[in-house]
């Protein structure tokens, strides 16, 4: 719920974006919310292999749902959430990687 609130506050000025968290299968969540498109972010070729397998499984579970992959920019391709969290925990500046809301969330949960 903290992550959902952080994302919602980050995008509060943009219309037609609704952030929802869920537990369970993504295909079930998509069907429940009348969604037929999943957008996934990729940083590197290694991400693609995992995501491609997941897309194949999702297709078998619900062939009406399409998946689109978006590549990150070159400057962000190496960044993972684990790296960002570790840098923050060790006192590093992560402001160019995450929003102010996320940094505040890190501080609250430190």
Structural category: mainly alpha
State the distance separating the first and last CA atoms: 17 Å
Question: How helix-rich are the residues, as a percent range?
Answer: 40-55%
Question: How does the major sheet shape up?
Answer: 2 strands, parallel
Q: In which order are the strands of the major sheet placed?
A: 1-2
Strand content: 5-15%
Residue-averaged pLDDT: 85
Overall geometry comes to globular
Order of helices and strands: HHEHEHH
Number of strands: 2
Radius of gyration from CA coordinates: 16 Å
User: So how many helices?
Assistant: 5
* Model regions low in confidence, pLDDT < 50 over at least 5 residues: none
Structure description:
The protein contains five helices and two strands; from the N terminus they run H-H-E-H-E-H-H. Helix 1 packs antiparallel against helix 5. With about 110 residues, it is mainly α. The model has no long low-confidence stretch (mean pLDDT about 85).
Gist?
The chain has 110 residues and is mostly helical.
Notable features of this structure?
mainly alpha, 5 helices, 110 residues, globular
What is the secondary structure topology, with strand pairs?
Elements: H1 2-10, H2 26-32, E1 37-42, H3 45-61, E2 66-71, H4 81-89, H5 100-108
Parallel strand pairs: 1-2
